[in-house]
Amino acid sequence: xxxxxxxxxxxxxxxxxxxxxxxxxxxxxxxxxxxxxxxxxxxxxxxxxxxxxxxxxxxxxxxxxxxxxxxxxxxxxx
Length: 78
Fold this sequence. Notes:
The chain is α+β, with helices and mostly antiparallel strands.
């Protein structure tokens, strides 16, 4: 897995998660990895702000270019 974080605005980040598994490395088998997004976000927030801080989280899946929501991309697709 590869995780990239980009600061977008105050209290707003863009998180890209990429599956780096390759069929060459797994003898032709396709490997899918599931992540627990809530646990990942909790861990990131705790690392930065400490364990006693509380927060709210809003997650929106974006297109590959991150210029529109995934659902808007699907709706506009021909």
